Here is the input.
Amino acid sequence: MLTEEQKRRVEVENKAILRNVQSIRHRIIVLSGKGGVGKTTVSVNLAYTLKARGYATGLLDADVTGPNIPKMLGLEGELHSHEGRITPLLSDNVKVISIANILSPDQPVLWRGPMRSKLLHQFLGYVEWGDLDYLVADLPPGTGDEIITLIQKMTPDLAVIVTTPQEVSLIDSRRAINMTKEMGLGKIGVIENMSGLKCPSCGSRIDLFGKDGGRKQAEEMNVTFLGTLPIDIQARIMADNGKPIVLAQQDSEIAVAIGAITEKIVSMLGDESR
Here is the structure.
């Protein structure tokens, strides 16, 4: 049972989250059933493609125990707060929040679920997001506490499920799709990542993880198929060097594919392309 003081704090927190969320026109969560499928790469490049199209955009690193977004952006510096409000960091005019900018680089986050969810409440309710067109949240893999917290509190307009064509990945992405359906999300899209590798020597396409698994799954489960993204060595190099591929190499195959996916998302959410 909660004490009266605890109930009061929960009410204050919920009001702060509601107030912040209402100033964000569209809220997108990016998730996967398992790790290692490129979910964070998708989140980062989606956010920066939206920004490049003229939308005011924020990026929330909700993967509390594996926060990699600052590394992929080369984003250093500590978070600051004033009168209980947290100021997000800016990277190429995208507002970014991550626990990685609170911790020392090698410090593990040895927190149980309630503590991780509490941090996400802070990121949703007490960060100065301002008036945004889009907030993209990169969620941890699986279907745990943080994901439930984000869906309940953030009330997203769209869930983007990232999978590879491999059956092992598809098994887990089915669970993620069903979870978002059970939690009442009306708009769900699937991205098939790591969909083929272009041989740098001969130019032939190699389907390392299979082919069309994400597309078939989207059709079978009656959700939107957003598109495929190829394996791109430069995207990995750019991420390691702190630069989104959509900014560093705008004409690359993967950047063009992310652009097409972004246009579908914008259309799904009722915005006109800019």
